[in-house]
Structure formats: structure tokens, C-alpha cells
Amino acid sequence: MQNFIKQKWTLLLLLALLAGGNKAQAQQDKMFSQYMFNMMALNPAYAGSRDVLSATALYRNQWGGLEGAPQTATFTLDMPVNRERVGVGIQLFNDRVGLENWTGAMLSYAFRIKLGERSTLALGLQGGAASFRWDLTSANLGSSQSDPAFSSSISKILPNFGTGIYLSNDRSYLGISVPYLIESNLNSGDVSSVQRAKIRRHFYGMMGFVIGRNNIKLKPSMLVKYVNGAPLALDGNLNLWFSDRIAFGVSYRNNRFNTYAGQIQAAPNGDVLTSDALVGMIELQLSDQFRFGYSYDWTQNGLNSNRQFLNIPTHEIMLRYEFGFTKSKILTPRYF
User: Fold this and answer.
1) Contact 226, 17 (CB under 8 A)
2) Cβ distance 64 to 57 under 8 Å?
């Protein structure tokens, strides 16, 4: 237990250092409101942590009705092997934003070290590739007849790899990850260094725990996101569980700026807007093996300043199925 506490405070210190990063200007990576149910998409060290073969599908439709708004789908499959000393997994994803389309697959490997009867420290690696297409020829140029920058589309296969640390027991978790380490160039090679677009390295810190041991439990969690080129972002969540079968939750997502279609809106104090979305969610354990989750985002950023964009919906649906190897494993509650 003492070793677990030491490791926990060490990672908390790293999270604090991560949160102290400098401001920047833009964020690229996929966004999830139900990040706590889709951890394989953020941290390869999570592979095998549920102790059974686990399949999770998630679909997010952000700002529904707006042309070019983000749409994201992921599917993950992971399991423990070698007497639960190793976790392996695969992640498939598609992410569309405006003229960009990403489709890829990543394989994950986690080496799991027992720190006590219930605590495990996992060191994870992942590797794979994404097909990137920038459909520039479909851009609406307005009154402009032509623009050389949009004369041809860009299509690339981009390999990448990432790493992470995940410390957990049956009632808490703490982790740090960098899912994509290679900062590949996205546009063609005939542009200046100032104009060049590239994949940015994203850093994530995550933690959560469960309070209570009876029929009512409170499950707080937090996700810290940082990338060189974007302000620090924070997701905070509270889920209230009833009889380990149904949970209602609320999240608040904080970004230090708002951007859409290249627009950045300044706050009155000279900084940038701090509120991005308020999220409501519900989680249902429909059977010992099947779980359903749904979230709805109430947009709080600069889109609300335009009446045309008021009450634009953001929906997210999660489905998870556990293939239990034994009945005792399936009946054990898993909160993360």
C-alpha cells in the first residue's frame, strides 16, 4: 500500500507539472466527453486493465447540423494475457473535421507490474498508422475563382507510436500518456516552415476514484490535456452510481480559448474564453457484461454568441461488452 501511495503522489506531481505548461494557440486531437469509458483511445497502458476481453465502441457527433463539424468514431478491443502480466489491445478510429479525414489503427502493449494485492502499475506502448486526407479541392472559395493552395488534395499514410503509464486498483486510477509522439508534416513539401501544418504531440493526464461502498457511490474523475500549440484544457466529471447498475453524471470542460472555422474570440479581460461545454451523461449496466453510456454537451463557448448556433446539439454514445472468462470475473464491479 505504501508503494502505491508513493507512486500515486509521484504521478500527481507530474500532472501538476503538466498543468503548468505555457499557453499556445490550437488543439488537434480527438475529443471525448465520455473519456472515462474510452481510456484505450487515450492511454495504451490501459490495455488489459479490466481483467477480461473488453470491446468498446464510441460515436461522437459534435455541433450537429453545422457543416464541417467534428464527427468521431472509435472501436477498441483489449484483454490481459500471460496470467494478467501483459495487456494487449487494438484501437480503430475515424475522425472527420471540416475537410480533414483521419482513419487509422493502433496496436497496444502494456507490461503490468503488481504493486500489491489489488494495485497494478502498467507501462504501455502503442504503434500503428493513420490514413490522412485533406480534401482541399472541395473547399468553398466563395467569390474567388481559384486558389493555388486549393488546387489539389493531400493524402498520406502516417505511421506513429505512443506511450503511457497507468496506475490502478479496483477503486482508483491515475495515468499519464502521449498517444502520438511523431510530429509528421501534413501538407506537401513545397510550403515554407511558417505555413507548414503538422501533427502536434499531445499530453494527457487522467485520474479518478470511487467514494462509498454501499448502494450509492460517487465517482469523480479528471482529464488534463496539453499540446504545444494549444492552451491547457481540463475536463472534470462527477458520476453518481446507484446499486452498480445506473449512474447519472455531469462534466465541465474548460478551454482557455474557443475556435471554430479559424475564429478565436477574446474574453473581456484580455485573456480568452474559459468555458467550452457543460455535459450531462447517463450510464447503464444493462447486464453483467453489457454497458451503455450517453452524453449530451451544452456548448458554452463563443458559438453561443451567434443566434444561428444557439442550442446546437452534441451527442455521444458508448457501448461496451465484456467477454468474461469466468463468472466470478464478470460479477466483479469495474468502475474504470
Assistant:
1) no
2) no
Asked if residues 317 and 293 have their Cβ atoms less than 8 Å apart, the reply is yes
Q: DSSP readout, 128-194?
A: EEEEEEE-GGG---TT-S--GGGSS-EEEEEEEEEEEEEEEETTEEEEEEES-----B-S-TTS-TT
Q: 45, 265, 279: which is closest to 163 by C-alpha?
A: 45
Helix, strand or coil, per DSSP, at residue 331: helix
List helix spans (H) across 217-290: none
**Residue owning grid cell 499519464:** 176
Cell digits of residue 58: 464510441
Which of 157-183 are b and which e, b meaning 16 or more Cβ less than 10 Å from the residue's Cβ? ebebbbbbbbbbbbbbbbbbbbbbeee
The SS3 of residue 27 is: coil
Instruction: Tell me the helix, strand and coil percentages in the chain, rounded to 5.
Output: 15, 50, 40
Q: How far is CA 308 from its chain centroid?
A: 28
Task: Give the mean pLDDT per block of 10 residues along the chain (336 residues).
Answer: 42 38 50 90 94 94 80 95 93 89 95 90 96 76 63 83 94 94 75 61 94 90 85 89 94 63 38 69 92 89 54 88 67 64
The whole-number pLDDT of residue 44 equals 96
250 DSSP β-pair partners? 238, 280
Put residue 142 in one of left, alpha, beta given phi > 0 → left and psi -120 to 50 → alpha.
Answer: left
For residue 34, how many other CB atoms are within 10 A of its CB? 21
